[in-house]
Design a protein that fits this description.
Distance between the termini of chain A: 22 Å
Number of domains of chain A: 1
Structural class of chain A: mainly alpha
Radius of gyration of chain A: 17 Å
Bound molecules: FE2/S2 (inorganic) cluster
Oligomer: homodimer
CATH architecture of chain A: Orthogonal Bundle
CATH class of chain A: Mainly Alpha
Largest interface: A-B, 41 and 41 residues
Helix content of chain A: 55-70%
Number of strands of chain A: 2
CATH superfamily of chain A: Winged helix-like DNA-binding domain superfamily/Winged helix DNA-binding domain
Order of helices and strands of chain A: HHHEEHHHHH
Strand order of the largest sheet of chain A: 1-2
DNA sequence: TCTATAAAAGATATTTTTGTCTTTTATTTC
DNA sequence: GAAATAAAAGACAAAAATATCTTTTATAGA
């Protein structure tokens, strides 16, 4: 469904939301541990998300990653788009160069329904909401 | 959603269903052209599907690929499972090692709904049915 | 039985994704 | 201002996915 990169990105965003909700910042090493991802790899991903303004960061001592109030309202759709592009939102399920109602592939009618559900789900789900459930220990970001 | 390999596999299966419905067989070169895929690559994929009994083939002159009556009833789920494994049917949307109700990731509740829809869709959709729509030119296997 | 044909099998190559390491830059604290 | 810290940037490496080519095997038909 999502690339590994995207899975890590979403997990990291929720983790950062949690660890920075009191205004503090969280380092890359702890993030990697918290979400069970390769340290250098998630660093690269967050760097890119930082450039796009999806996550905030500060260098130097006491520095690290955090989310400002507007970033907490980021939808998963925004993250997915930033990392994986928009193939999942508009691409053909059978890999035709273009998805189109006028020139549909054999799966088009069934696939667009699902694609719509996925899009709705990703649009309505915000990082901040997922972080709250995580806080209540109703959900988890890693599995040992 | 699906790997390139899987997209080609599904398209090829529908194409073979169409071209072999009169009992004839279809060669790899025509298949590659018909579904706009790399020739040697789809050959490898069909070889593997052949080993698994998902598609039928014959060597030699007048040889080629075809689908017997039972293969026409193959569901997309069978093809996807044969090619991509069962990650899409049971894997965690955020890439945790295990998807579980007891230890759910933040996306679990929303994701399992969609995963179920996908599973149902792939199970109920049969190659033969898609081929019929293709015959009526209601759908297409390539886009130029 | 010989020849031509077409898939199977095996080997190799390229590209993309995923993962790692090193150097540079910004920031804090002393 | 100097030292320590942590992310940014850039270079590199490994693995997986995608793609291509060559040789072998089975089959049909002359
Ligand atoms: S054309 Fe394939 S999903 Fe729309
Ligand atoms: S645990 Fe992630 S989808 Fe079930």
């Amino acid at each position: 469904m999502f690339s590994k990169t995207c899975e890590y990105a979403i997990r990291a965003m929720i983790f950062i939301a949690q660890k920075s909700k009191d205004g503090s910042k969280i380092g890359i090493r702890e993030i990697a541990k918290g979400i069970d991802s390769p340290e250098y790899f998630i660093a690269k991903i967050l760097q890119e998300l930082g450039r796009k303004g999806v996550v905030q960061s500060m260098k130097g001592p006491t520095g690290g990653f955090y989310l400002d109030n507007s970033a907490r309202k980021t939808s998963l759709a925004t993250i997915v788009k930033a990392v994986d592009g928009d193939n999942i939102f508009s691409g053909c399920g059978l890999g035709l160069k273009q998805c189109s109602d006028k020139h549909p592939c054999p799966l088009h009618h069934e696939f667009t329904k699902i694609r719509k559900d996925i899009t709705n789900m990703l649009n309505k789900t915000k990082v901040g909401d997922l972080q709250e459930e995580l806080d209540q220990k109703l959900t988890f970001l890693r599995r040992d």
